[in-house]
Design brief:
Elements (H helix, E strand, L loop, with lengths): L12 E7 L14 E3 L4 E8 L4 E9 L2 H14 L5 E2 L8 E8 L5 E7 L8 H9 L2 H10 L8 E2 L4 E8 L5 E5 L8 E3 L10 E6 L3 H13 L2 E5 L2 E11 L13
Parallel strand pairs: 5-7, 10-13
Antiparallel strand pairs: 1-2, 1-6, 2-3, 3-4, 4-8, 6-7, 9-12, 9-14, 11-12, 13-14
Helix pairs in contact: 1-3
């Protein structure tokens, strides 16, 4: 999640799937699949029903040993280039790992191609040619699963209203019972015309499904006479508690 807990610091490490043709606003769910904070808190989501229903949300707290190990892996990432396509595949899904180094500088590496153990020839070829430092972090990130973690419900969801530049098919009114206070985004050339809103976490599943339906159908949302697309920017949780990890049992 982009900011799954309300803290002054940004995530230490975040991971997203990516496509060669993707842009900032190519998906309504802008939150990463995994976000790890300097405190050792890990928030991640798992898709359900092939993405038809909202993802399930989980969290754990890493041990100090695990945090130290992760720090060493992140140091190894700093020597990598910012883009790899080892199998020279066109229009293929990719992976993006973004992290903050010890100097607080934001860095990112994107790798194109599948890395999952599917036994498909292309995936095997990509893994064989992928930088070992990337795989060391990637395999750890995708290794989180629900079995030894604590599910959580969001306290709040932060939304962005992105103005529709080309119009939209059959726009529908924004349900103001979800968020009656919609404000302008921080002024910048990139955010001109954008709006922000917060919705109570009790509406997460209904809200997620509602936005997804609008997105899948190419439908916009109207607010104060203008048409927007709704994006989920942040999922905000409460306090995390220590969870027993498999090796400690």
């Amino acid at each position: 999640m982009a900011s799954p807990v309300e803290r002054p610091e940004a995530p230490l490490l975040a991971y997203w799937p990516a496509n060669l043709w993707s842009t900032r606003w190519s998906s309504f769910d802008q939150t990463p699949d995994v976000a790890i904070y300097p405190s050792g808190e890990v928030f991640f989501k798992q898709p359900t029903d092939w993405g038809v229903t909202p993802p399930r949300l989980y969290r754990i707290l890493l041990t100090q040993e695990q945090q130290d190990d992760l720090g060493q892996r992140l140091k190894a990432l700093e020597s990598l280039k910012d883009y790899y396509n080892p199998a020279h595949i066109k229009c293929a899904p990719g992976k993006v790992i973004q992290w903050r180094n010890e100097r607080g500088i934001l860095q990112a590496v994107e790798l194109v191609g599948g890395l999952e153990p599917t036994l498909e020839a292309n995936d095997r070829n990509v893994r064989a040619k992928a930088p070992p430092a990337f795989l060391a972090v990637y395999d750890q990130l995708v290794g989180f699963n629900a079995e030894n973690t604590a599910p959580f419900k969001p306290e709040r969801i932060r939304l962005t209203f992105a103005p529709s530049r080309e119009g939209a098919v059959n726009p529908v009114p924004w349900p103001q019972t979800w968020a009656t206070r919609v404000t302008s985004a921080t002024a910048s050339s990139e955010n001109e015309g954008f709006l922000k809103a917060e919705v109570s976490g009790i509406h997460f599943e209904d809200l997620y499904a509602w936005i997804q339906t609008r997105n899948d159908n190419g439908e916009g949302v109207t607010f104060n006479g203008k048409v927007y697309y709704i994006l989920i920017e942040d999922i905000i949780a409460g306090e995390v508690t220590r969870t027993t990890l498999p090796h400690e049992r």
